[in-house]
Design brief:
By secondary structure, this protein is mainly alpha-helical. The protein is built from 3 helices and no strands.
Length: about 70
Amino acid sequence: MDEVFPLHGLGPDEQNFPSMTTIANTLTPDQQADLLVFLKSIDGTTPPFRSEGDDFRDALRLQGTCPVAPVM
């Protein structure tokens, strides 16, 4: 995964490829190491994290304008 850090675009430059703002040139080496440990800790037993997108989707569902997600 750490090989992706120089390639993964961040911020407003993400429209350009390759991006000028990446994980590798934004985070310090210690922050990159911490991010890598965190990412490797995520597996099938990790509870999902709610995001602002989840809140937005749920608000739309309350209005009846968003389909209900299929049960897995």
